[in-house]
Amino acid sequence: MKTAGDESSTGSSIEPPRAGTPLYVHVPFCAAKCHYCDFYSFAAVATDSEGFVPLLMREAERRAPLEPTTVFVGGGTPTWLSIVDLEALFDGLDRITGFRRSAAEVTVECNPESLDVAKAARLLELGATRLSIGVQSLRPEILESFGRVHGPRQAFLAFDAARTAGFDDLNTDLIYAAPGQDIDDWEQDLERVLGWGPTHVSAYHLAFEPGTAFERWRQEGKLARAGEELELAFFERTHARLRSAGFEAYELSNFSLSGRHCLHNVNYWENGPYVGLGPSAVSRVGRDRFGNARSLETWRADVLAQAGPAWSERLSPRASLGETWWLGLRTTRGVSPEEARATAGFADEIDPSLAEARALVEQGLLAERDGRFALTSRGLPLADAVAVRFLETATAPEAVHES
Amino acid sequence: MDTQHIRNFSIVAHIDHGKSTLADRMLELTGAVEQRDMRDQVLDDMELERERGITIKARAVTIWHEYRGERYQLNLIDTPGHVDFHYEVEKSLQACEGALLLVDAAQGVAAQTVANAYLAIEGDLTVLPVLNKIDLVHARPDEVAEEIEHSIGIDATGAMAISAKTGKGVSEVLDAVIREIPPPAGDPDAPLRALIFDAIYDEYRGIIVYLRVVDGRIERGERIRMMGTDKTYDAVEVGCFTPKMKSTGALSAGEVGYFISNIKRLGDVKVGDTMTHFRGPEVEMLPGYREPTHMVFADFYPTAAGDFEGLREALETLSLSDSSFSYEPVTSDALGFGFRCGFLGLLHMEIVQQRLEREHDMDMIQTAPTVTYKIRMEDGTEDEIHSPGQLPSPDKYEGLLEPIARATLLIPAEYVGALMQICADHRGTYVRQEYLSTTRVQLTYDIPLAEIIYDFYDKLKSSTRGYGTLNYEIVDFREDDLVKLVILVNREEVDALSSIAHREQAEQRGRSIIKKLRKEIPRHMFEVSLQAAVGARIIARENIAALRKDVTAKCYGGDITRKRKLLEKQKAGKRRMRQIGNVEIPQKAFLSVLGSAAEGK
Q: CATH topology of B296-365 equal to that of B374-479?
């Protein structure tokens, strides 16, 4: 779907976002493509980003919400861009949306090889409030197996540069249960990263995503998953260690000190609205979810042609209800049935999710407290198996089309 | 047509020995089918028949052949080759005076060759042996002719050697049909007597009755009486098959063709019945009809518990075109409302199941097939049991009897030892052993039918590398030390997984079922226990460990749609499962009771 006016193909035109809608910006450029990564990103050369920011601004002028409450610049590696490009990006976005006054949180994703004190300081001046640094591991051999272009020391230096530049709010991204990874080594990594003093840790269980080198190697038998028991041990040890360091596991893979949740991401798990700009970025506005092409060239052409989204879907209230539960149960805060119904626009007398939730309470996988349902410690590592139960109660999406 | 210029014949053969190819060639040779319209298996209409290369329903076709300057009407009645459709073969043969006994000159005499040849001999038909596939390099016509003489006891010295594939010798076969097979004996001037030897359901025309006129003549517009059912019908159309239906207005003594009236249900026509004129002179009924015997029973349940009515409609529609299976409503604690169906055999069961799925889009759970058992009560009366669930507790009956099949196995001589062991393992009783030639042996055993269904046929095939063939006939019901083998899932008895087994085999069977279930049932969020029990005694147990970890690591705005679709795909997989208590059991698991499923075929 690449021609202008194609928005009508969803059945009705996609409405403009309300003021305050969270904003995501995708920068697809990286120094190298990591072997596990399934985001739209690629190892870029300098000419790849020519004209990128102006195009992004063109898209923003057409689609960006006014006064977003949060902004997240992700990728890819946004810090791969030059300071000049970053200035154009932030100044342009502020001119179009006024985010510097409205946004309570502005996160920028960084990789160690492209963050120094000067760039960090400039990002702070440009309006960033929070940096998320891709540390992944502190073991050279594991970083190498991931295809990362930095070492452990460079990760520490990047973190230190962010701190020196004046950022309070710092996240470190980490990956565990990698092939060949030792669980005690992992705990030591975690220990050392905690010693740097981050306010937030995202610790992801390594996923073999379709289309990645890792998944291909797994199918070819060159790599093996850690195995369920070990994966569970990693999961549980990660949770225990971070909890004892005063971090709250507010989502399945996200931990923070008090008051330092990532507000932008919390909105996703609340199934709230958002607007995404840039190649592959996804938006949810009203009942529609839609996305840009996963290709820099196609995205560029679409922006120039003022085309509609590359794909879109509209969920029925019932399907949306199931989705709201699935996403919400990823968080410690859990789900309030009333709020979920309101979010999904579900108005039937009988709430099928509620019955499912009660059954899961019986099975010890969910607990109900103060009118909210959340996963128990036994339910946490089974979040997907639990989620399927809610999607089961949902009917098929009313309309899904993809190009 | 005067009867002297009519020949009615059949081809009897083992599956894959080339019967359909020979029929195709005959049609081509006599110009019944233009070469450009020729496709393989012209007579096999049903999609399943073409796909599996087998004939399920009998077909008939009228062809014309010139012999010594005179024109003859030849009616070829095609017959199914598989053991399950034994009864169809019998009906077809009744309409003939002769049969071609077609044997693969490379593979030699097979079990159904013998069984079908005997049907022809018992029906007093002239049997002409024909050796097919002589173009194959490993054809051994002399040895196979010897096998025919030994196994069937007919003179095979003059057996015709042909290649149905290339057409070599086919014209000579047609000459021989005219020369050797006697013309029909009926009297064209006598009162009408016609044998119904088959009937099919046609979506547009209703029931098409296949008939062979024995005496007299039937014409369009006449009023006809079926003597067995005492129903009357008007002959809306009468004709022959060329192979397409061609209205001829009349059929007279000796001729084979079809009859159409406004008959709606296949069940209204009894194959084997005699047709005569309504209010015509009294005639004697032709020997004929018996109800098909259902040897194998299995339950069908809709996968979606609410779709019982949909399944009923599908079964009703299917029974219009296949009256040889039975169905009656049944209730299972585990599976809810469904139907217990009776079949002629395992292949028949499979075909019905596939037709329901394909032609009627049914999504079903099928239980493992079981045979008919009988229980003997204290007062000597007997009751039939069609599923393990129907079996009362042992104190309620005196004895449990099972059907015994006399199994004829035709195998290469080198496998005799292995086969005898397999027969012994399946509670077989030795009856006799005969050498048909130096390389082929016919073994006869009495084996409980339940054993044949369990995995005997698969074992036979695998231990003879596919060369062994089997034919069987039920000869007896015998009492044995049979027990109900109960399967418990999370300590709950699942009736649909229970079976009846010999006491000595129960433990081993129980272990095997539990092992298979362990593989088939996916892990749950809790531990699932599986147990096999005889009475109060647990004879086997396994646990399916609880699923411990199943979680997507990252899920942000750009991931939601794709991840949801992945989860929905998982969910769709679960739709094909049945929930028993808290446990979801996939369709395939219900066949775990069957031994043959063990080798993962």
A: yes
